[in-house]
Design goal:
Elements lengths: L1 E9 L5 H17 L3 E17 L2 E13 L4 H10 L3 E8 L6
């Protein structure tokens, strides 16, 4: 297994409970694909660099997890088609930062 860090941005119209449900969904997605979530850090609402559909703020979340490299594509595929996730960035952490 390799260590990964995922940052994703969630729709601004979701309340705190709906954001938590989305965080739980992403965690479940990782576990379903054989991964293990190590740390979840919700950053709350942050300002975007540019407005999208007249919205300047979105909810940011960062997750650290371990996952088999072969399953990364499936996680990214599901995040791409998610209605609640606006953008995401998944990176592999360096070996020394585990």
């Amino acid at each position: 297994m390799s260590a990964y860090e995922l940052m994703y941005i969630v729709k601004p119209e979701l309340d705190d409970q709906a954001v938590q449900q989305e965080i739980d969904k992403v965690g479940q997605l990782i576990q379903t694909n054989g991964g293990q979530v190590k740390k979840v850090t919700p950053w709350g609402k942050r300002r975007l660099a540019y407005s999208v559909k007249d919205q300047r703020q979105r909810h940011y979340v960062v997750e650290e997890f371990d996952l088999v490299q072969a399953k990364v594509q499936e996680v990214e595929r599901v995040l791409r088609i998610s209605d609640s996730v606006f953008r995401h960035l998944l990176v592999r952490q360096e070996e020394g930062k585990k």
